[in-house]
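Exam revision sheet. Question 4 asks you to relate a sequence to its structure. Input first:
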Amino acid sequence: MAIPNAYAQYNNSKVLTASPAELTLMLYEGAIKFCNIAIVAVEQKDIEKAHIHITKVERIIDHLRQTLDMKYPVAQDFDRIYSYLSRRLVEANVKKDEEILKEVNTHLRSVRDTWKEVMRLAR
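Answer key, structure tokens:
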């Protein structure tokens, strides 16, 4: 019983002490993880599990989109990316389409990798 509690405390501490950039990276990582789970669920014809995890990805994308600081020109580019991903996720959820999920996951990985590079250069 103590091990899961210690793990939860560690994760909570990790989030509470993370910089905004690190939190954004965690959100990308979470979206990729949930998208991977949704892909497997679609492959296994587990409709409910696929829906739950696609919805989690949608919520992360919505959060990322809502927290954009639109005074920066690059935010408009991210807004277009997030808008596109949101539309594709809705389509993937309606159709339970593995290929759309794989496409979304490819985009998420690309954005995450770009974000990692930005973080590296900012150090």
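Marking note for examiners. The chain has one domain: 20-122.
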